[in-house]
């Protein structure tokens, strides 16, 4: 791949388009937020060149595309590194899509193809629906996500942080975890506290699910070194040691990398969009742990995370947002298309 191919293209327009999305169902509460709704509409950016090439995607943030019109594409993105002009950083995903389409390769191939285009993917949609529908709601959600194609499940825990009495909430967290393990004995079970636990409260939860063979524990509390060290020591006492995943919420990336280097964080979770493809391309070589970019919110973020996993490697599993239209899920794996770019046409 050579930037010379991109230098023949000049940005002729940058426009926006509204893109709708929906979940399989209304998604309920987590440890501190209310209902997440059933879908919505987001703004995508569409970048076109004077030779008729078009790429599109979600922005990292709102930016000003005006100064980019009339610029050579090769001045904005290098296929080997990502976006190279800070003024174009907000168009990270549209520019990756555009460059890969011009080069006639999938984005994951442009990223290096270090992983498999068949990416293990868990359902990230098991929230606190039991608060309204009882345990049967959790059972129904698990069955629905399994029918959709998921084989691994992430459960939201931390009901005692805000929504229930602490003792009753802890017991419900344990019951939900044990139900998932009972229904799907071969599944990877991941749990996410959204920083809703104390150290002692988490240890009580772990005592109640010690035989459930958790795959990972995500964001049990803020990334405090002493607490993570205590957790690290406690996990060694379990029959099987879950991974510790952290770095999603407002991360200090240098701090997360340091904790990973110390063995206190096993999986780094910086968001696939807010950290960006270019950001992950810079970060991954320095990460002394695995990665699994946070992808909750939009089904298309699952597609982005899958391309990152297949492109950069070092991503054993990604977050699946249960919803149709953005990715193909087969027996627990996102199967990436061979079409150029992200392989997804603007709806």
Automatic annotation (TrEMBL):
The keyword Magnesium applies. Residues 135-242 form the Mandelate racemase/muconate lactonizing enzyme C-terminal domain. The keyword Glycosyltransferase does not apply. Gene3D superfamilies: Enolase-like C-terminal domain (3.20.20.120), Enolase-like, N-terminal domain (3.30.390.10). Its cofactor is Mg(2+). One of its GO terms (molecular function) is hydro-lyase activity. This is L-alanine-DL-glutamate epimerase-like enolase superfamily enzyme. Keywords: Magnesium, Metal-binding. It comes from the Bacteria. GO terms for biological process: amino acid catabolic process; carbohydrate catabolic process. PANTHER family: ENOLASE SUPERFAMILY, MANDELATE RACEMASE, MITOCHONDRIAL ENOLASE SUPERFAMILY MEMBER 1.
């Amino acid at each position: 791949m050579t930037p010379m191919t991109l230098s023949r293209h000049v940005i002729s327009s940058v426009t926006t388009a509204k893109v709708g999305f929906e979940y399989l169902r209304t998604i309920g509460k987590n440890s501190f937020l209310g209902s997440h709704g059933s879908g919505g509409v987001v703004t995508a950016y569409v970048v076109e060149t004077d030779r008729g090439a078009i790429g599109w995607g979600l922005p990292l943030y709102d930016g000003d595309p005006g100064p980019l019109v009339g610029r050579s594409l090769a001045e904005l993105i290098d296929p080997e590194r990502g976006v190279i002009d800070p003024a174009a950083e907000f168009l990270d995903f549209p520019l990756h899509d555009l460059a890969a389409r011009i080069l006639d390769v999938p984005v994951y191939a442009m990223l290096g193809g270090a992983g498999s285009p068949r990416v293990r993917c868990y359902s990230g949609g098991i929230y606190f629906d039991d608060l309204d529908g009882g345990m049967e709601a959790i059972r129904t959600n698990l069955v629905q996500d399994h029918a959709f194609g998921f084989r691994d499940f992430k459960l939201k825990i931390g009901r005692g942080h805000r929504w229930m009495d602490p003792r009753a909430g802890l017991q419900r967290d344990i019951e939900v975890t044990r139900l998932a393990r009972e229904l799907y004995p071969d599944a990877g079970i991941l749990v996410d506290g959204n920083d809703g636990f104390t150290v002692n409260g988490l240890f009580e939860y772990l005592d109640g699910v010690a035989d459930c063979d958790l795959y990972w524990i995500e964001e049990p509390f803020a990334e405090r070194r002493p607490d993570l060290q205590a957790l690290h020591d406690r996990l060694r006492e379990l029959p099987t040691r879950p991974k510790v995943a952290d770095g999603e919420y407002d991360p200090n990336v240098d701090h997360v990398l340091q904790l990973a280097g110390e063995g206190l964080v096993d999986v780094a979770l910086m968001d696939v969009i807010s950290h960006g493809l270019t950001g992950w391309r810079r970060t991954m070589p320095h990460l002394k742990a695995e990665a699994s970019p946070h992808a909750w919110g939009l089904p298309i973020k699952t597609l982005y995370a899958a391309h990152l996993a297949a492109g950069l490697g070092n991503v054993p599993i990604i977050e699946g947002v249960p919803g149709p239209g953005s990715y193909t899920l087969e027996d627990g794996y996102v199967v990436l298309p061979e079409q150029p770019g992200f392989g997804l046409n603007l709806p």
